Amino acid sequence: MGSYHAGSLAVQELVGVRERAEHVGRSLGQDIKPVAAAFLELQPLLVVGAADPGTRRVWASALTGTPGFVRATGPRQMSVTTDAGPADPLTAALKTPGTHLGTIALDPRTRRRMRLNGRLRPTARGFAVQADQVFSNCPRYIQRRQSYATSADRTPGSPRRLTGLGPVEQEFIRSADTFFLATVHGAGADASHRGGNPGFVKVTSPRELTWPDYPGNAMFRTLGNLRTDPRAGLLLLDWESGDTLQLTGEAHTEFAADGVRSVRFTLLEARSTPAAVPLRWSAPEYSPANPGS
User: Residue 288: inside a domain, yes or no?
Assistant: First the structure.
């Protein structure tokens, strides 16, 4: 399949980076190279993004396990030996053959990230993904966290379903230095990372957020997806307590005359889950690439 679809191409043309994007796009492939396979096997966290087959709403979810729970089981196949749990909004999607799935493995220790997108096949112990695209991104905007511990006695609480953000959720968002963003297009799904100093995500109302779109690799995969399909899912994670906040809704990019870009997200539904993730990471060292650092 081609490197970019019409939405990404349109944004690249609008911003004036089409030639650079074509060069960067050569890094996209279907094969999981040995260095990527080795990276996957060290990760305790995988973020996945997809559309729920029933509601068609897009969500991002966190999957965790002992390193090795995510691994390459073929040159173009990744296997995951866990599930999202019965209360997660992507549980049905992860059991549906042919689901378009976007995944991202991000390691705060090394500030490396790897993305793999493809079609899902359920397995006896979880699922496998047949890769359509495999690629890495630069370390910009990733906060370094030197180490993590697994809290074996941490039990996830019951998720609260919300249609608006209360004071607690709003503060959770304002204090975030990282979130994950799931988007879709006609032939696939994607999961990406957004980072910045705390406060880079603004809560403008109980049902609306906005964040800056910092300069990246010129691919505009996420903004390209949103140009053709505004459905989006956000995952915010408390890296110490393991609390998660999952949001689903629609997102639209705003292009200012001076070239500054921002994304405005309108909430349809949220799920707040205490202690959802058993990992407790060390305090962050903010990326020197973050504006304001």
Answer: no
